[in-house]
Amino acid sequence: HRFSTQVNSRTNLIVFKLITWDCITAKGSGYRCQIYNGVMDSKVYQHVLGTTYMETLDYCGFGKAQVYLQHDNDPKYKSKST
């Protein structure tokens, strides 16, 4: 599976958990990517920035100097390697 599943025995519903990274630009929604192992650490975050984020900027016609990257204060965003 590329996402985790659970079965709620009381209701017989299957619950899917899907972790994604998304971005929003002035021109609308950017690309979305799935975090396959369900954990976004600094290494995964750097990969997302180098691929999905940069592809979104390219698609929307933005240069790196034209955007502000906003995020919360989660440690993965502030690590020395990031």
Summarize the structure.
It comes from Rhizopus microsporus ATCC 52813. With 82 residues, this protein is an alpha+beta fold.
Write structural notes for this entry.
- 28% of the residues lie in helices and 22% in strands.
- It is of the alpha+beta class and 82 residues long.
- It has one domain (4-78).
- A hairpin with a 4-residue loop joins strand 1 (4-8) and strand 2 (13-17).
- The longest helix has 19 residues, at 42-60.
**Class derived from helix and strand content:** alpha+beta
Q: Widest sheet: strand order?
A: 1-2
Beta content comes to 15-25%
As a whole number of angstroms, the C-alpha radius of gyration is 16 Å
* Alpha carbon gap, first and last residue: 29 Å
Q: What does the largest sheet look like?
A: 2 strands, antiparallel
Number of DSSP helices?
Answer: 2
Q: Which geometry do the CA atoms define?
A: extended
What integer is the average pLDDT?
Answer: 82
Low-confidence stretches: none
Order of SSEs, N→C?
Answer: EEEEEEHH
Q: Bin the helical content.
A: 25-40%
Number of domains: 1
The total of beta strands comes to 6
GO molecular function: nucleic acid binding
Organism: Rhizopus microsporus ATCC 52813
Protein name: Integrase catalytic domain-containing protein
